[in-house]
Known about the structure:
Elements: H1 11-19, H2 23-29, H3 34-47, E1 57-60, H4 70-76, E2 82-89, H5 96-112, E3 115-123, H6 135-154, E4 159-164, E5 172-174, H7 196-201, H8 203-214, E6 225-227, H9 247-250, E7 255-258, H10 269-278, E8 283-288, H11 295-308, E9 314-320, H12 325-332, E10 340-343, H13 351-355, H14 360-363, E11 370-373, H15 375-387, E12 399-406, H16 411-431, H17 434-437, E13 441-448, H18 451-470, E14 494-500, H19 505-509, H20 514-521, E15 529-533, E16 546-547, H21 550-557, E17 565-568
Amino acid sequence: MSIPQNFWCTDELALHTFASLPAPDLRNCAQVSRSFNRIAVQSVLDRHEIWSAQRSAALQLADDPNDLDGLSALLLSIHVKNLAYVMFNLMKVVSLPSALKTFHKMQRLVDRMESLGTVHANWPSAAYQEQPISDKMLATACKCVEDFLDTVISKGCTTLEFSGFYAFASNYKLKKNLAFTAAEIPRAPAVEKLSIWENARGYLPSRRARAASDAPLPLLEEGSYSRKSSRFSISAPWISLTPSPKLSQVTKLATFSTHSTGVFRPPFSQWTFALLKASAVTSIKLSFKDVPDNGVESKLILDRLAEAVPDVTTIRLSSARPGLMKNVVAWLGRFQQLEVLKIEPACFSAGNDIDDLELQALARLPHMKQLRSSSSFLCAYLASCRGVDGGSLPRNLRKVIMKHKWTSSTQSAVSAFIKDVERLDNAIVEASPEPEARCLTLYIHLYFDSFPDRAEALKRIWNRLDSRILHPSSDAKVSLETPPCFHPIKSWPQLCLELMLPTTADEIQRGVVDEEVIAFCRMFPTLWKIKLCSPSSPAVSPRLALPLRRERLDKLQSVCPGLHYGWVY
């Protein structure tokens, strides 16, 4: 077999060769030429399944700063100049000194970029709560995080996402006296030239005063918090991330997301609220799972959020502490410009939580376009709409999305699910007259704990039903005489099915899960539209969805004749 003359110069061979080199040699190769730089960097990124770093880069950072991880590879690159989506995951970084070095490297990478889109920083730093941290180390940590975040904002980041960031929030406690203000913090007295004896006698008070004066003063609201002294320091100076005065000039932030309320408490809160007030934020995603049990403090956090982003149009709540949703629903009524509201079913710990909600203020929001939650919450909202002035749905409402976690495909579970859909459909019909409801679409969003098992069990139900129809027998079960299908009482609202599938968009387009998808489509014979979602590409927006291939759509139309549209994203 003859080997092409240029075989030994191909990128594929170079990738295989570089992949076997130790880290020091690979770093040296990356500095030989532009071509070697591109191949050497990609050989490292391939190990972490990062195929196009400029489009999407999920960086699993190493605890040893000298390891050649994805972040180190991108620092070597001279080609990557833009990051559309980047996730810095510090899950493996378990020591605080390593975390500080990592934040410095993250800042260097971001500072080299010409533009940024979405930046997701995951710092699950619970391990640091069990370790004693000196004031000096705490101040250094806050400074490292502050420099990184300021650099991210200065580079034009439009979407900022936080996970974790709660390690140091426990150092601060809300004071009982909320009238305490920043003006009450004592400043250091003027120190005159003293004798040796006077210096010795005033050493400790002077040291304590200097510690207090060197720390940045808290904002008015931050004066409600205090930090206890530790055995590593005589005093407890105020340590926090300091908001930059240039925030309003450089920020392009439009979307803010956090999985912890720790970023709304010291030492992060001064920076966070200053950023939100300086930015034109229109969308926020929040988790209230770890909101403090202190009712005064939780109300303080909610009030400050409402003041910081009064014109937000999209809110998504991913989780909440049990018993908090009554206060949260009342808080949501303060956002008069709200258009899209998404409340995950996990926010409601029990069914009776929804019965206690006062939804009138939420039902009066005039600009609501899209509402997504559990079937029980949506039905309660629709009932509240009938009780307010006008007695109908908001004029602009176009999407009602029922989100349901599919955990069982037994006959009883399928029947209960269909009844939930029927109740929601009836509630929509009762809450809105026909001309308005014709423009509304009911979305059924299904996600799974084990998709292959649930789909296979559902297919067995349909196979038994088909077999009974073709070969009827006298001992057929009554429960299988009626197919488990949803038949709406009206031709409106239109029906759309969304399936979150644990596979790639390419596999969906190639028909790998066709039979499984058909099993769920058979429950909705009047289906008008279908969306198949792949979680494998977190940076892809639903707005960039690809049309379902013609052969896929034709196959689905065999069980849903009215199906007109299909998308994959």
